Amino acid sequence: MDSTELIGRCDRLAALADRRLALPAASPAAAARARQLHDHLDGFVRPRAADIDAPLLVLLLGPTGAGKSSLLNTIAGAEVSKVGVLRPTTRDAVLYASERDSNRILASGRLVAVAKERLRLAASPAAADGIAVIDAPDIDSVERDNRELADVLVETSDLCVFVTTATRYADLVPWEVLRRVHERGLPLVVVLNRVPADEQDGAAVVADAKRLLAQTDNPNAQAPVDLIVIDEGDIDPRVNGLAREKARPLLERISLLAAEADERRAVATLALSGALRGLAPLTHAIADDLEHEAIDADALRRIAASTYAEELASLSRALQSGLILREEVLRRWNDFVGADQVARFISSGIGRLRAMILTAFRGTTAAPVTIVEAEMTSTLEAIALRHATDAARRTAVAWSERSHAAELVARNPALWSASEGFRPAIREGLGVWMGGIVDDVRSHAGRKRAVAQIAAVGVNAVSVAVMLGVFVHTAGLTGTELGIAAGTAVVNQKLLEAIFGERAMGELIAKARARLEALLTSLFENERERFEALVPAPGSLRDLAAALRAAVEDMAP
To answer: CATH fold of 55-271, please?
Structure first.
């Protein structure tokens, strides 16, 4: 593909990498891969694809005390990087480049991921234009920030000079970093420093180092790994670096790159080609992470949905199988409707009951509408709040048992109970619900037969009778409560039948019950969404994974 198409595809992949980076990762390893792709695209692939002739960036990388800073001083012919006995010696990155090249590298975004306070500039002569050398912090540093900075620099470089010693070359941590160098196809030179002067001992060290290098063979590399051996000793005190004669193979390589634009272009092309080939494995690994996280997110949503559905069903059963009003409140209502008197007429048939409706309430006390409504509201609010809190607690417990979700719950302690807005929301919803029942009763009052009866009883009182019809029934009750509830249920039913007729009465109660169920369902869905908002939307992770895979298809040269 031509450079324009390559840059366009890199831009699309970078946009997808940014989207991935903005999402929480399920593990530190997944987060590291996402950051790696982002840094690699922004710090190397896109700038290098846009300008193949930009200054070559050579990275000095290695474990603490390996001699990287001494080697940079030798290259510079001056002490530009601090050498000392404290470890880690190099705490910040040192960029050795001409002023022109430094400006060009920084303007390109190659080192945008490196904090300004962690990058120290050391000027090289203008004659050295075209090549910059950067001394990275020690990759096995006890300081985490140093290791992270070194990792970022690996993603931005064109050529890696891996500096190690005869006593450190087999250490685990440096080789883990070197594995990433191999994965991204970065041209590599290995400098084996302080090899014993004894010929036999030195040969054994070199042979073993070659064996380890062979085990990390890089399928993305297009050039063999150079191994440069430096004998022990021979320090140049004037620059606090290695004697130039000992480092001559590396110095000659760097001098050639500085002098020949074609050589620099060849290395840059190798680095870009290796990077493009290395994009697919890294991107597919990130897509795998996303697909695994999608499975985990689906499981978390199922837990929340199942738990809230169970508690909502339990709430519905509680409203259908128990007495939600206190005995004293029901007695007051029964006294108002003259339950004892109405009950005597029930056996005489519905026609006789209609005949006495206008006189049944005459002379009674005012209807306890406000009392019943307040009792109903507070009781419903308390029961719903208890079940919403149980749903939240159960969901939080189940999520906490999963490592990838435990941190989400830990950061949100409010998830262990119903939200602060649940109580006022259900109170407001019940007010609207009760108002809706009043409107339904008024609309039914337009029927000629019901006008007089409703006028006699009162719209609000009839509305309360409809509300009670939603809740008050005999199922599951015993003893005194059974008698009270049965009496109230029968009286309400007969009263409403007398006013509206059996069919219309059933419609009123069914409509009121359906709206209450819809209200509770909506409130519980809102509560459940507090959990679901913590995980990506269904399908979004899989869609991003598919887009990432498609973006790197056929990208390698």
So the answer is: Rossmann fold (3.40.50)
